[in-house]
Amino acid sequence: MTEIKPNLADPAKKLVTESTASHLAAQQVWADKLDILSDSLHFARKFAGKIIVIKYGGHAMGQEHQARHFAQDVVLLKQVGLRPIIVHGGGPQIGKMLERVGIKSNFIDGLRVTDPPTMEIVEMVLSGAVNKQLVGWIEQMGGKAIGLSGKDAGLIRAKPVEKHRAEMGYVGEPERIDPAILHALLDSPFIPVIAPVGFRIEGETYNTYNINADTSAGAIAACLKAERLLMLTDVVGVLDNEKNFIPHLSVAEANELIADGTITGGMIPKVETCIDAVQNGVKASVILDGRVPHALLLELFTPVGHGTLIQTSPTA
After folding, report:
1. Are 221 and 179 in contact (CB under 8 A)?
2. How many CB atoms lie within 10 A of CB 287?
3. Residue 62 DSSP one-character state
4. Cα–Cα distances in angstroms (integers) from residue 271 to residues 34, 229, 252, 262, in the given order
5. How far, in Å, CA of 151 to CA of 163, rounded?
6. Per residue in 245-275, pLDDT tens?
7. I want to staple 253 with a disulfide (CB 3.0 to 4.6 A). Which of 6, 42, 249, 296 is the partner?
8. Radius of gyration of the CA atoms of the chain, in A
9. Is 80 exceeded by the pLDDT of residue 39?
10. What's the mean pLDDT in 288-298?
11. Lowest mean pLDDT, pick from 25-39, 220-234, 271-285
C-alpha cells in the first residue's frame, strides 16, 4: 500500500495550523491573566472585610478615562469583599466655577480663602457636580454608590483652622467625625462617596466649612480604624534626596525626612496626614500615583505595592 502523507503545503492544512496556533496563543494570554488573578486572591482574602479609605483627587480626577478606571477598581474592591470609602477633592473644578462667576481665588499656605460667596460655590461644586459625577461613574461600572457631604447625618463637624483664622473665612478642619452613617453603609451594598464639606453650629447659626480633602480622609480613616488610608496624588510617592522612590517608611523615618528637608512643599501635609492617621489607629497609610491605571489594585493586590507605605514599624 502506498503511504499517504499529509500535504503540508495544502492551503487548507496551513489554515488549520495557523488557526490552531492563534487559538493556543489566545489561551496562553488568558492563562497568564488567570495566573495573575490567582496570585491576587491571597491579597483579596487578606483585605476581605477591611475598611479602605481612599482620598481621590489630583489631575487623574479630571481625566474621564482615568476616572472610569478608578471607579471600576473601586467596584471590584467592593465585589471581592473589601469595604471602600471614597473622600474626593475638587480644587480645579472649584477654581473653574469661581472664574466663570467672576470670583477671584485667593490662597494662603495652599488653602483657598473661603468667604460666604466662595463657600456657596465650593459646596455646589463638591457636594453637587463632582460628587454626583463620581457616583455616576461607579454606577456605570456596576456598583452602588451614595453621595454624601460632611453635613449629612452630622458626619464631619468642623472647627475653623487656627493659622490665619481671621483671613481664611470658612476654612475648617475636622473636629469630630460621627461614623454612624458610614457604619450603616459599610454593612450594605453601597459605597460611600464623601465631599469634604463640614458643618459647625455657632450660636444659632449653622455654618458650612470648606475642609481639605486629605485632612478629611485622614480623620475618617482614623475614626474607623481603617486597614488602609490610600492617598491618590500626582506623584509616584515619597522620594529621597536623589529622587529615588521610597517604598516603605516608618513614622519615625517619615518625620526625619520632613525635619531634614527631604520631604518639602505640598508633600509635607500629605505625609503629616498619613502619620496622624497611623498614630490614631489606621494600620498603614499609602501615598500613590493616581494617574497610573489600576493604581488601587496594584497597591492592594500585588506583593510589591504601588506607593510609599507609612506605618508604625519600619517593615512592610
Report:
1. no
2. 28
3. G
4. 36, 11, 12, 12
5. 23
6. 999 999 999 999 999 999 998 899 999 999 9
7. 249
8. 24
9. no
10. 91
11. 25-39
Tell me the C-alpha distance between 170 and 158, whole Å: 10
Q: Strands of 51-56's sheet, edge to edge?
A: 145-149, 191-195, 83-88, 51-56, 228-233, 284-289, 308-311, 248-250
Q: Which residue has the cell 523615618?
A: 253
What's the rounded Cα separation, in Å, for the pair 301 and 1? 63
Please indicate whether residue 251 or residue 2 has the higher confidence score (pLDDT).
Answer: 251
* pTM of the complete model: 0.87
Phi, psi dihedral angles at 299 (to 5 degrees): -70, -45
Sort 144 into a burial class: Cβ within 10 Å, 0-12 / 13-18 / 19+.
middle
Domain parsing of the chain, residue ranges? 41-311
For cell 510617592, what's the residue?
237
CA 276 → CA 93, 102, 150, 216, 285, distances in Å? 28, 37, 20, 12, 10
Name the nearest CA neighbour of 217 among 205, 206, 228, 203: 228
Cα(21)–Cα(13) distance, integer angstroms: 12
Give the amino acid at 260.
D
Query: Maximum distance among all alpha carbons in the chain?
Result: 108
Q: What pLDDT, in 10s, does the model give residues 196-242?
A: 999 999 899 999 999 999 999 999 999 999 999 999 998 889 999 99
Residue type, 126: L
Topology, domain 41-311: Carbamate kinase (3.40.1160)
In which residue are the cell numbers 473622600 written?
87
Burial class (CB in 10 A: 0-12, 13-18, 19+), 243: exposed
Per-residue model confidence (pLDDT) at position 316: 45
- Whole-angstrom distance, CA of residue 42 vs CA of residue 131: 33
Cα distance between residue 187 and residue 70, in whole Å: 22
DSSP reduced 3-state for 10:
coil
Summarize pLDDT for 151-206 with one digit per residue, the tens: 999 999 999 998 888 899 999 999 999 999 999 999 899 999 999 999 999 899 99
